[in-house]
Amino acid sequence: KDVYAVIGSPIKHSKSPWIHTLFAEVTQEPVEYKAVLGNEQDFAGSVDAFRAEGGLGLNVTVPFKQDAFNYATEHSERAKRAGAVNTLVFREDGSVLADNTDGVGIVRDITKNHGFNIQGQRVLILGAGGAVRGILEPLLSEQPSAVVIANRTVSKAEELAQDFADLGSVSACGFVDVEGAFDLIINGTSASLSGELPPVPETVIQSSTVCYDMMYGAEMTVFNQWAQKQGASQVIDGLGMLVEQAAESFFIWRGVRPDTTPVLTALRDSLK
Ligand code: ATR
């Protein structure tokens, strides 16, 4: 079998081996997918060892997404924009291709799985960290009418708005300064982890607003609970994004696109 893996530290909690093993079954591809605990002092050494054993590709998670960027010899446009990498391809000629499938993952979950067309819509993004940077290029290529990035540290939102200004209408502000209502709101802060809510005005949500929390869990996230209470038309968590970004990586490696629906259903059941 062809060997792939996810590398991170810690790595035990990763759902990628489970997801990719199901993809391999569904597509009948001869793929074996492992979990590799990376050496935080020597990412390159960990990757070299994996390649020496015949590994053909890696998914990369915390804290190595920037190390993976530096390790690679070629980068996709979206990986360059993200400044971080979640997928590596080891080619026969020794070159290493880097890609970032997170943004495509969330866009596909929103448009394909939830039937929401982003084109022409007003989008609010909460947060301005690595996770948000990673999704901006694919999101903007859907041509929303405007994207507002709101963050606790406003300067980080401003920096992102500047970095992506050539791709569309992107502006920045603090949470309490957000004005108007939005068609799509994406929570990309890690505030949910501590059960906190970004203090945006309730008026950002109207009855047609779709809310997306990039986090997920067995219970509805605090942000999605809040959004539902404000009357949002749909609240979505990040589980679909997780499965879709995995599917895109699988496609990059194998040239085959797995059906994500049964995998997402099984993963949802396993959270209960
Ligand atoms: P990630 O890779 O998940 O994006 P990150 O780069 O550390 O991690 O970014 C975390 C994001 O969540 C940032 O936008 C951060 O806000 P700051 O830039 O002001 O630090 C945001 N965040 C984290 N905890 C938060 C909280 N309790 N309330 C609001 N925003 C929070």
From TrEMBL:
Active site, renumbered = K65 (proton acceptor)
Superkingdom of source: Bacteria
Question: What PANTHER family does the record point to?
Answer: BIFUNCTIONAL 3-DEHYDROQUINATE DEHYDRATASE_SHIKIMATE DEHYDROGENASE, CHLOROPLASTIC, SHIKIMATE DEHYDROGENASE
Query: What range does the record give for the signal peptide?
Result: none
Q: Recorded GO terms, molecular function?
A: NADP binding; shikimate 3-dehydrogenase (NADP+) activity
This entry's Enzyme Commission designation comes to 1.1.1.25
The entry's function note states:
Involved in the biosynthesis of the chorismate, which leads to the biosynthesis of aromatic amino acids. Catalyzes the reversible NADPH linked reduction of 3-dehydroshikimate (DHSA) to yield shikimate (SA).
Q: Tell me the Gene Ontology biological-process terms attached to this UniProt entry.
A: amino acid biosynthetic process; aromatic amino acid family biosynthetic process; chorismate biosynthetic process; shikimate metabolic process
Supply the name of the protein. Answer: Shikimate dehydrogenase (NADP(+))
Gene encoding this chain? aroE
Concerning its family, UniProt says:
Belongs to the shikimate dehydrogenase family.
